[in-house]
Amino acid sequence: MSTSGTAGAPGTPGAVVALDLDGVIWRGAEPIAPAIEGAARLRAAGLQVVFLSNNSSVPVSGVVDKLRAMGVEAQPGEVITSALAAAHLLRRDLAAGAKVLVCGGPGVYEALAAEGLTAVDDGPADAVVVGLNRNFSYDVLARASAAVRAGARFVATNLDNTYPVPEGLIPGAGAIVAAVAAAAGVTPEVAGKPAHPIADLVRERFGPSGVMVGDRPSTDGAMADTLGWPFALVLSGVTKAVAPPGGEAIPDPPPPFVAADLGALVDPLVASLLHS
């Protein structure tokens, strides 16, 4: 299924197509075959393809390696994750070397180090960053919430409650953030999609205009709104015509572009971005 509308982005070569990853390019370790071909076709048409992920657990190098292993051309500078957005947000206000308690994966540790911040596993700390953490436990919850109650700044990489894998949906960072917020009694700042910190990074790197492609209207569609870009929805992830348990339904009214997968979006996106 595919519908198209006016993108509102400049009709010039190099226009940006920002692709979500989970549910758009892959489901867990499994590539979405039409998306692999679709990304290559977008580049061949002269569009600038970049990658914008709320999954904070994987370092940028890991994202690039996974994309390349699946046959998708990618460079580190073309990847922005919610971990990068969280670290960039904190570095604006914290001194170099400030301690940040991490309740997250390797991607968060990498991003904090790149911004000159010191990752720690227990308090006291100047800030706490919570993201997708496959080693999350009661003890981790206790340490993170205690640091927040003691006054540490509380930053969530993102609030996605689930993300798609071949078997269905599994818990996302939002589920862990909710536990820390409940235990601490504090609402977090959000760095990733659809919040402004990651939007600021996108504009800084890639310019003011483009299209956001994603599988989750509540996150990717809202991110498009934050950027002022049109939203292209794919049904290869958490969204279906009828919302599955834990998933989402196609919004009413639908976004400007809706298709089964990225491959089916290529022609309408090229026509809108380059020939409008």
How would you sum up this structure, described in words?
- The protein has about 280 residues and is of the alpha/beta class.
- The protein folds into 2 domains: about 1-55 and about 195-275, Rossmann fold, CATH 3.40.50.1000; about 85-190, Rossmann fold (3-Layer(aba) Sandwich).
- It is about 35% helix and about 20% strand.
- The chain contains 9 helices and 18 strands.
- It has a 7-stranded mixed sheet, with helices on both faces.
- Helix 4 links the parallel strand 7 and strand 8.
- The longest helix has 14 residues, at about 260-275.
- It is globular, with a radius of gyration of 18 Å.
- It starts with a strand and ends with a helix.
- Mean pLDDT is about 95; it is low at about 1-15.
Average pLDDT over all residues: 93
What is the CATH architecture annotation of the largest domain? 3-Layer(aba) Sandwich
Could you please say which CATH topology of the largest domain applies here?
Answer: Rossmann fold
Record the strand order, biggest sheet.
1-18-15-14-2-5-6
Q: Roughly how much helix do the residues carry, as a percent range?
A: 25-40%
CATH superfamily of the largest domain: HAD superfamily/HAD-like
Cα(first) to Cα(last) distance is: 21 Å
Number of strands: 18
Strand content: 15-25%
